[in-house]
Design a protein that fits this description.
Number of domains: 5
Helix content: 40-55%
GO molecular function: DNA binding; N-methyltransferase activity
Shape: globular
Number of strands: 24
Strand content: 5-15%
Distance between the termini: 69 Å
Structural class: alpha/beta
CATH architecture of the largest domain: 3-Layer(aba) Sandwich
Oligomer: single chain
Protein name: N-6 DNA methylase
Keywords: DNA-binding, Methyltransferase, Restriction system, Transferase
Largest sheet: 9 strands, mixed
GO biological process, one term: methylation
Strand order of the largest sheet: 5-4-3-6-7-9-8-10-13
Pfam families: N6_Mtase
Radius of gyration: 31 Å
CATH class of the largest domain: Alpha Beta
Length: 748
């Protein structure tokens, strides 16, 4: 577009993005331009060759090189938005200690709502966002905190209301109690500075941080993308339902996969908080979903309208419905057992489909061969009535919040089934390990769909061909006749049909390879200390005695600060939820403070106890109780507070002693025995600050102290490397035993 056209757009449309000045030039954020162009269809007369009716200016912008930041999907079928390093850093900052400082006693979900509404409004509603910026610019401090939260809450409430969502987002934001105006504005500006891809990252970080229940955590993006690719066709107009919407991941995947078609997305949820997240996420992508949380009957027997496709990840192995809720359902395949809704969800999903409609349901693997009689008979009915087309076991550890292994059940409301068998796929070896999780990439999705889609589309070829295609792509598949599946156990677990002999499924090669790689990696690490010693010349030799050493009392080297008295900080003042962590003697483990303490104090209470704050490299000793090794404060523990039962040592600025050296010295057997012997012999031994201050400390010149700490630190790392090596060897031994005793590996 030429400049006059852009100026015309800016003059005629109040929601046109605001330019950013760079010298004498005005520039625009690509993400904002792409989002604005998404709602503007190219007139028929202006379509270029290859462009279909309904193409938007955003489609053309992306195709011709715009949107390099991937603030919106790269292309039809792409499962993920590339998230830049800066966005990851921003989300890490948001979801770290800043979150606790902003939320106060409120739940983490309330803080997440703040992040999501800011991210949405910053990109999608620039006019309203300017008002928020004005409020922040005019703010004077703590007294304006509530004004900013009310302004954000009103904006969120109005946004959701205009899109049919009745969630009380305003009330959620007003639950927040930030420690300071700066903390709140830092969080708001950090969230506002992220790209669209960070939206999903915040929600995933929330799942991992909180350890949510099965009913709450989000669906992995790769899993949602695979589900959509199995049953949706790009460009084909389709109605899609997710009856348990969570954060909107399944519906977002459907939108990405269908592409430019005018799909209709429906969502249901029993949790209004999750509905708000889903609404904002989908609106963030330029989609206006039809979401509801007003389903008064958990299992309505009749739906007014059927849908073409259902994609859903219902809660695993849970039941929120009492007995009467069961009787209202339409249980065409058999009444589900009390206490577990797995098969209630399966039947509800099938009842929502139009004839020949398809569904992909995330199910726990154990549901495929559970021994419960009612569930077994439901599986048998599903098989005999041709409702099950395919079952896919996906890699374990896909979810950040649960290790439960899952499968995808591809279901069909069959009128005239064309297949006499069921395709079972074991894709557990796919995926990429990322920290403690496995992630399904686009290549994994494409490998699975290359095998499964022809089966679902009715391709005519020998059943054995599917096994060959799967093997070529690194996983296993087999077609099993329905009458065989419907036999005594009626298992829908792929491993029961892909095993060898009577021993079940072969152990996974990927796990064995990972275990071998881990041993090799740790073997390399064991050589690092020797290399370090050779390269630096560091080591040790027999000395001539402590010449040039000094000796001083501890009180002359440190500021000694005992924790607050119990009367000032009683148990009633503590909380297990949000606030500043308190350090107790039981939190001192192996010279460190544990990362998660049991007790906290509210932020407002903590403000009165600044005197007892901890800083990096402070040393914490036991004051009341059995003496143990003092602990060194790490950088992430700055701002934590002393409890009544511990004492803080902080090295004085003019003291010629290194804090790491002093920490090591206090851990010596001599020093610990000295402290134990001078603790008052009461019911709980107590070491006063005055007594502790008379501990004699011997130390060499500062340079020698640091060399000594370098050497001891390297030995600590060496010991850790050996411990990790032993653990890796144990894992390799266990994996190798599985293969050797199964016959899939032979000794040389």
């Amino acid at each position: 577009m030429k400049r006059p056209a852009v100026s015309n757009w800016a003059r005629r449309h109040k929601d046109f993005p605001t330019p950013v000045r760079s010298g004498d030039t005005e520039l625009f954020h690509e993400a904002e331009i792409t989002r604005w162009l998404t709602d503007r269809t190219i007139p028929q007369s202006q379509l270029l060759e290859g462009e279909q009716a309904g193409t938007t200016f955003a489609d053309r912008f992306r195709r011709t090189g715009g949107d390099r930041s991937s603030a919106v999907p790269r292309a039809v079928g792409s499962s993920t938005q590339r998230i830049g390093t800066e966005d990851k850093k921003a989300v890490d900052q948001l979801m770290g200690p800043l979150a606790d400082r902003v939320r106060g006693p409120a739940t983490m979900a309330d803080f997440v709502n703040l992040c999501l509404i800011v991210m949405y409004a910053r990109h999608a509603e620039p006019e309203r966002w300017r008002r928020i910026e004005d409020v922040m610019s005019a703010g004077q401090g703590a007294r304006d905190v509530q004004s900013l939260l009310r302004c954000l809450g009103d904006m969120a409430q109005d946004t959701l209301r205009r899109n049919g969502d009745r969630t009380d987002m305003r009330g959620s934001l007003l639950q927040l109690e930030p420690r300071s105006w700066d903390d709140l504005t830092t969080a708001v500006r950090t969230a506002a500075g992220t790209g669209a891809g960070a939206f999903q990252l915040v929600w995933e970080s929330f799942s991992a941080r909180e350890g949510l229940q099965s009913s709450e955590f989000c669906s992995p993006v790769g899993l949602a993308s695979l589900s959509a690719a199995l049953v949706l066709t790009p460009g084909l107009k389709t109605t899609v339902l997710d009856p348990y919407t969570r954060g909107g991941e399944m519906l977002a995947a459907a939108h990405h996969h269908i592409g430019g078609a005018r799909e209709t997305l429906y969502g249901e949820t029993l949790d209004g908080r999750l509905q708000a997240v889903a609404s904002l996420y989908l609106l963030h992508l330029g989609v206006r979903p039809k979401l509801t949380s007003t389903r008064s009957d958990r299992w309505p027997p009749n739906r007014e309208h059927g849908v073409d496709v259902v994609l859903t990840n219902p809660p695993f192995n849970m039941s929120d419905a009492p007995g009467p809720g069961r009787r209202t359902g339409n249980w065409s395949y058999g009444s589900p057992p009390q206490g577990n809704d797995n098969f209630a969800w399966v039947q509800y999903v099938l009842g929502a489909l139009v004839p020949d409609g398809r569904a992909v349901v995330v199910m726990p693997v154990k549901a495929g061969n559970s021994v419960n009689a009612a569930e077994r008979e439901i599986r048998r009915a599903l098989v005999r009535r041709c409702a099950v087309e395919c079952v896919i076991t996906v890699p374990s550890h896909l979810f950040s919040a649960t290790p439960v292994p899952v499968s995808l059940w591809v279901l069909r409301r069959a009128e005239n089934p064309s297949r006499e068998g069921i395709l079972f796929v074991d894709a557990q070896e796919l995926g990429t390990k990322v920290r403690r999780r496995r992630v399904l990439r686009d290549t994994d999705r494409d490998a699975i769909t290359a095998v499964v889609r022809p089966w679902l589309d009715g391709e005519r070829c020998p059943d054995s061909e599917y096994a060959v295609r799967a093997a070529e792509r690194g996983f296993s598949a087999v077609v099993v006749a329905r009458e065989v599946v419907a036999d005594e156990g009626c298992s829908l677990r792929p491993a029961d049909y892909l095993g060898s002999g009577t021993y079940g499924a072969a152990p996974t090669t990927a796990a064995l390879l990972e275990a071998g790689d881990a041993v090799a990696e740790h073997t390399d690490r064991l050589c690092a200390p020797e290399r370090w010693a050779r390269e630096t010349g560091h080591g040790y030799r027999t000395g001539s005695g402590p010449g040039g050493w000094n000796e001083a009392l501890l009180k002359d080297l440190c500021d000694i600060q005992p924790g607050p008295s119990y009367t000032r900080l009683p148990a009633a003042a503590r909380t297990a939820d949000a606030g500043v962590p308190l350090v107790f003697p039981q939190d001192l483990v192996d010279g460190r403070i544990v990362d998660e303490t049991r007790d906290r104090v509210p932020w407002r209470t903590a403000e009165r106890f600044k005197k007892f704050e901890l800083l990096p490299d402070d040393i914490v000793c036991v004051r009341t109780g059995a003496q143990q090794q003092p602990a060194l404060v790490s950088g992430t523990q700055a701002g934590w507070l002393l409890s009544s039962n511990v004492t803080r040592l902080r090295v004085l600025r003019d003291a010629e002693i290194d804090s790491l050296y002093l920490h090591a010295y206090l851990g010596l057997r001599y020093a610990r025995e000295w402290m134990s012997n001078r603790a008052a012999a009461t019911a709980a031994p107590s070491l006063s600050s005055a007594a502790l201050g008379h501990l004699p400390v011997r130390f060499p010149p500062i340079g020698q102290q640091r060399l000594s700490m370098d050497l001891l630190g390297e030995l600590d790392r060496h010991a850790d490397a050996y411990a990790s090596f032993v653990s890796a060897l144990g894992r390799l031994r266990a994996e190798l035993a599985e293969h050797l005793l199964h016959g899939s590996v032979e000794p040389l």
